[in-house]
Amino acid sequence: MKFTFTCKKIALNDSIKEYAEKKISKLDRYFPEEADAFVTFAVEKKNRCVVELTIRTANGTLFRAQEEDPDGDMRGAINEAVAFIERRIRKNKTRLARNLRPDALTSNIPAEFDVVEEPEFDVVRTKRFAVKPMTTEEAILQMNLLDHTFYVFRNMDTSAVCVVYRRNNGGYGLIETQD
């Protein structure tokens, strides 16, 4: 696995990075080809250690986990992020088997794990609406007026379909599509 480390508001020693590499490398068994791991370490208010782990497989499948440790233990946050991704892989193992290494997903899960897999993705409601051209600011305003957590719109400047969303840690995010 290829690693990329980023630190925000913190300087880490090599032992933490080596620990992260060792723990995250255990997920390699699920991927047939080399995957890329992007790890961001941060310290937020009141010494909460936050680890954001994103793994991109060779076929483009993404796994993401953001975990925090309120006690200031970066190793604990790393462990939680790896465990979160492993639980996601186990939960969706048959769906992922089409994209990842099929033999790895069925044979590397210990028998003591209770794998509960959703039988299908049930779409319980479908909405259709016109995607109106507007600016990002107008879309955020419309989202807030509707009291939604996201809003789909067509960017007036680029004509691309975009999504604005409210982030959990405050502020807003923008997803822009491209052809």
UniProtKB/TrEMBL annotation:
Transmembrane segments: none annotated. It comes from the Bacteria. This is Ribosome hibernation promoting factor. Its main location: cytoplasm. Interacts with 100S ribosomes. Residues 120-174 form the Sigma 54 modulation/S30EA ribosomal protein C-terminal domain. It comes from Brotocaccenecus cirricatena. InterPro entries: HPF/YfiA_ribosome-assoc, HPF_long/plastid, RHF-like, RHF/RaiA, Ribosom_S30AE_C, Ribosom_S30AE_C_sf.
